[in-house]
Design goal:
The complex is a heterodimer of chains A (about 475) and B (about 300). Chain A is mainly alpha-helical and about 475 residues long. Chain A is built from 17 helices and six strands. In chain A, strand 5 and strand 6 form a beta hairpin. Chain B is an alpha/beta fold and about 300 residues long. Chain B is about 30% helix and about 30% strand. Chain B has nine helices and 14 strands. The chains are: A mainly alpha (about 475), B alpha/beta (about 300). Chains A and B meet through helix 1 and helix 7 of A and helix 2 of B.
Amino acid sequence: MASKFLLVAQREYLTRVRKRAFIILTLAVPLLLAGFGVFIAKLAQSDDSTEVVEVRDDSGLNLATRLVSTPQLRFVPATGTLAEAKKGFVKAKHEGLLYLPAGLDVEKPTNVQFFGKGNISLKRQLAVENALNKAFSELKMQKSGLSQEQLDRLRSKVDLKATSLDDTGKEADSNALATSGTAYVLALAIYLFIFIYGVQIMRGVGEEKSSRIMEVMLSSVKPFDLMMGKIVGIAAVGLTQFLLWGLLSVGASTVLVPLLTGADKDKPKTEVAATTTTAPGTASTASADGEPQSAAGRFDRGMSQQNAQMNPSKRFDIFSTLGNLPIGTILFGFIVYFLGGYLLYGALFGAVGAAVDDQTDTQQFMFPITMPLILSYIVGLSVILRNPDGPVAFWMSMIPFTSPIAMVIRLPFGVPMWQLALSIFLLILGFIGTVWVAARIYRVGVLMYGKKVTYRELGKWMFYKG
Amino acid sequence: MKPILEAIDVRKAYANHVALDGVSLSIPEGSIFGLLGPNGAGKTSLIRIITQITGADEGEIRFRGERLNPSHIAQIGYLPEERGLYKKMKVGEQLLYLAQLRGLSRADATQRIKQWLTRFEIKEWASKNVEDLSKGMQQKVQFIATVLHQPSLIILDEPFSGFDPINANLIKDEILELRNQGATIIFSTHRMESVEEMCDNIALINRSRKVLDGPIGVIRDQFKTNTYEVEGKGKLIVVHPDFEVVEQKERENGHFYARVQLHAGVRPNDLLRYLIGAVEVEAFREKIPSINEIFIRRVRETMPETLLEEAV
């Protein structure tokens, strides 16, 4: 009866969702994820935090304004005499002082000095040298008659745009990172879901059996309803948990990560301004935080221009490639394989819970169930991800035990319609089959106590009469 | 009275043994019915067929004349021998859940749970987890779960095993009360003495077959051996063609106990008259066979000697 099935599913859902462990886990995971995010962000920040180098320009060549700042290296004008500046940059906690002495020869620049705290790293030295080289070449080019406008145009940033051609010759932006990333995330979600909640089904059945409530239950509910109610109820628990994890993780990351990493206030602004493709002028007003000299504006503009060119273009790329993925197919496929895979494995986990008395006996029956799951995950992320159209990928995405993971890995790379249809058809057949087998094992197993169950025994249960 | 439940030639076989071999029963409505027999006789198999946990291979069960079907689940209450509740669920919620599964509406169930918990004086435990309750309280909860949906047929498998004496008495009274309200109760037990004084009708099952059934009084009459117990003072020496002393015990201060069997056609008053002339009679009563004795006798009659010892 449908209403009993719903009652069972409702109980399975409510008793689990209200458990303290569920609430704690639901809250803890996003916090952990956010904490992990903060950790990564801190690491990344410490790696490419902006180093500030003061510039004392006595050359009279106006070189300082030609030094282009990057997100990693920022040039600011030094104040006072050289002696004052030497003390000043240490006090200001800046990383170094670049001294361009008077009478510098453009053709053969020597005597340029760089003062740094402690040892000067090769990376830093190379970065400063690189900036100086560019400044000198600009200067030389200007001397040979190029206007400032022309020079600005010469400053270019090349970003490779990879384009994939499909069979029909249609072009699409291809971003291997976005495609594999999507595949990886989808596969991991299905793998974890089946594992975590499949084991919960098994435990739940085991508890019902060991607490001896089974007989009371079976005198009011059909074993099939009881089993399916449990599977569906626990699926709802899982979906709730995943949904909350998703929402809370996004929430926690957006709130906590910037808060804890103490990111520059202007940074997000720059990004916002840049992604809305406003002129860099807007960005520079945002980042002109109290630099005394007007030259600073130019230094900073250099930096924000770089930002505007580099950062957003990359982001835009990933988003646009994500947009080029077959989103509809992926979403549809993910839901089908997510649910189909869960039902298929859930029924088997339920059958194992029903077949054994003792939780320690579950091992021998767990192994054949978890093996195809683990196999499809490992092979999927190694072989299929590298060759999503190969024979391994094809066969694994057809076999119902491996297709939930194998096929979602292939989805972002594009799968022929007939393969998808065949695979889904086989998956449906597969889960009807396993549910049928599981229901038979379940029906006999739940009332079987004190008997060491073997595979032969399970085989016999298939053919017991109702 | 019309039967509430009839079993007609029910057969049930498992992989390597026959659990029920052509068992027929008729359980009158409003009675307490004892389903008696040793362990492994087939009682639980029969009950699982009645509660629709399994089905019979052959034969038929009729509930009020209809073939048994899932619509009857709401009218049957079942307390299995293996007791159990969801340990991590609150008492009130658990009862509500079980009652709803038996077809009771949420509102009705809530109200009746309140009544029963008050009646068993465990109302304040309603919001506690089952695992926090004492064993006695868990048993009360289990019993409430069995009868909450006001079933017209209540099946109790080994009802008093595991109950402490106080709870056993409480449950006994409740069962009698339910019977008075019109419910039919099936007791299933291998400890025949524990229920025989409550049963109106019994059926004896041994080795998958019914060996005897009927109203308990009729069965007892059937198995009476026309034997009387005598207690008194003096020296009892019976030399009479009509009577025969089966057993005699000397007790202190010249008292005695004896069992005397009357030959066919002889009336108890004849014995009494004879006794009064011979000794001082202090007690005189008919020896009524216990169900256990009847069972053993019946099994002995119907089974070859070699199998008897295993059976008993």
